[in-house]
Structures are given as C-alpha cells and as structure tokens.
Design brief:
With 77 residues, the protein is of the alpha+beta class. Helix content is 43%, strand content 12%. The chain has one domain (2-67): Arc Repressor Mutant, subunit A, CATH 1.10.10.10. It is built from three helices and three strands.
Length: 77
C-alpha cells in the first residue's frame, strides 16, 4: 500500500489498485464523478458515503489537481 497524497492511497488489493480514500474502498474517480454531476460534498456524504468526510472529498480534488498539473500536453498547434 502506498499513500500517494493526503488521505489518498493505492493498494493493489483494493479496487484493482485504483486510488481510493485512505482506509476505505471509495475510489477517487467515484467522488470526482459525483462532483462533476453537480453534487456538493455534503450531498455526497449524506446520500452516498456517510463514512467519509469533507476533507476526504477535498483530498480527492487536490489529488486530481496534482495529476493535471504534472501532465504534459504535446502536439497542440
């Protein structure tokens, strides 16, 4: 298991090695998808994952941001 960002971990035994909120089986991509659909962190916690915190959701956003920051775009005219 590796902690790859604040509150985010990767374990090949959990969710096929996809990044999850530490200590859970909640994949980062599920949280990002719910946010992209317009749900608020409070709605996500209330309606889907009452065992995570707003800080966990913010950690998902920070993790996604760090990936995009490091991404190199090649070949744009």
């Amino acid at each position: 298991m590796a902690i790859i960002a604040d509150r985010i971990e990767v374990n090949p035994e959990i969710c096929h090695g996809k990044p999850v909120i530490a200590g859970t089986r909640v994949p980062v991509y599920m949280i990002l998808g719910l946010l992209a659909e317009g749900l608020t962190p409070e709605e996500i916690i209330r309606d889907y994952y009452n065992h995570i915190t707003k800080e966990d959701i913010l950690a998902c956003l920070k993790y996604a941001k760090s990936l995009i920051e490091k991404e190199e775009v090649v070949g744009i005219p």
